[in-house]
Amino acid sequence: MQPNVLIAVKNLTKVYGKANLAVKVLDVGNLAIRRGELVALTGPSGCGKTTLLNLLGALDRPTAGDIFFAGKRFTSQRETALCRFRREKIGFIFQTYHLIPTLSALKNVLAPALPLGKDYRKRALALLGMVGLTGKENRRPGALSGGEQQRVAIARALLLDPELILADEPTGNLDSAAGAGIIDLLKELNQQGKTVLVATHDQRVADNCGRNIRLVDGQVISHCKSRQDIVKNRQNPAAFKQ
């Protein structure tokens, strides 16, 4: 496995149900995400995007196949090890935010650190400032807009400094202006060195990613550069490397 590959899968399948009721929802032969990439995972509803994200983030286990993170296979690890892996290596951003409604923005960001017994308050405040929420740290989710709630979720995902960000339809519940702000944040995180994989129906998100992976019926049918990179390639082919 190449040293610049952060996460890779081999012969990955996911089947729900048994016997005559079994349905194969994912069948991916080989797939690799390199360190520092910003990748869009696209395809129609029900094609397996969320299932793949859940498997890559160790939220679910595959029916067959292997997943490697920084060259190490984690699909056979016990749940305690997977829990530690998720906490330390993966940052999750969900379409519906998954914020705790009774907690302030600050306490929501601090939630991943609760099992660690360490003081992350200073970092949490800095992250809320980074996502543009200075002065709103003590507001509960109900007092924030959808875009602001998603920014809280992004700050929470970054609290423990994960290597990989997995975002599932992060702009799906937002208007165009709020969605554009989230796109800018994801790009900024990538420019800071984070590896980001985004499942999305939003063409604006896909166009701002360096690579698009398209799924149909649980299978990868194409890999391509974003529209922006294709345009750059046409304008200056020597500056563009496959």
Description:
- 32% of the residues lie in helices and 26% in strands.
- The protein is of the alpha/beta class and 242 residues long.
- The protein has one domain: Rossmann fold, CATH 3.40.50.
- Helix 6 (176-191) links the parallel strand 7 (164-168) and strand 8 (195-199).
- Helix 4 crosses helix 5 (146-158) and helix 5 runs parallel beside helix 6.
- The two termini are 19 Å apart.
- The relative contact order is 0.17.
- Residues 230-242 have low confidence and may be disordered.
Secondary structure elements and their pairing?
Blueprint (H helix, E strand, L loop, with lengths): L4 E12 L6 E12 L3 E5 L6 H8 L7 E6 L2 E2 L5 H11 E4 L11 H6 L10 H10 L15 H13 L5 E5 L7 H16 L3 E5 L3 H5 L3 E6 L2 E7 L1 H9 L7
Parallel strand pairs: 3-8, 3-9, 6-7, 7-8
Antiparallel strand pairs: 1-2, 1-4, 4-5, 9-10
